[in-house]
Design brief:
Length: about 300
Amino acid sequence: MFGVLAERKISGWIQSRLGPKHVGPQGLLQTVADTVKLLQKEHVTPVNADPVAFNVAPLIVPVAALLAWIVIPLGVPFGVLLIGRDLNIGLLFFVAMTSLIVIGVLLGGWASNNKYSLLGALRSASQMISYEIPLALALLTPIMLAGTLSTVEIVDAQRGGFLGVGRWFLFGGGHGLGGLVVGVLAFAIFVAAATAETFRTPFDLPEAESELVAGYFSEYTGMRFALFQLGEYGELFAMAALSSLLFLGGWHGPGFTSTLWLFVKLFAMVFFLMWVRWTYPRLRLDQLLNFTWKGLLPLALLNVLLTGWVLV
């Protein structure tokens, strides 16, 4: 609910309008009111839809997005590590869980028996598969610099350095100018791919209102619609948290180590992704696919080679 409210406030600020302001002080309870409204909406299943798949699809998306949070550490307040499970293959688990989202999207679009929903689902599948590759390749840079797939160990590898930020992998993790180049490139590739993975503008073709009504969830109402939104924002915050952990030092920062640093970085990344959404226009489908296959993918492969050269 916080993500929806923040997005509406930020979009209002960017577009020089007030945004929600009537429900609660400064509109802070608007999302609560929207949730109550959705809870009262009728669950409509189209006559020709597959009822089982139609009802299961909205569950897959948020569950997959929330499972990705299992391996995301939120700091060590009072010496206690806040994490669901510190896996030695944490990043692999994260990529696997976020990849499952496309199954729910495809299932929902197909089961709706609606041409707009199906077209939106097919677009989302092609987009997620295309951008999953450069995203995974971008993750190889912090993996190679830290020598581990564990999210906790990657954060620990960024402790210390000049002003407390010198060993952040965004700045090369202490590997000089070469490390700085590969760190900045990997971060830029990851942010671009994460934006596409979460269907944010300018990569929101699966939900293009002017072409596809509402995309793959056009036929969904009430809380089933809300579950798709929950999955979308769950993945958005997960991607923002992961970028903060892998490239921005996690809970390490100038002066002191605190969970507060992680949340400052996380919300800064969320703000940036929302700012991009409300600033740039939507790409065409051919531009979107050309950008990844002819731009991001070769650049990501080159960056992996450069990272290996820096570490030699």
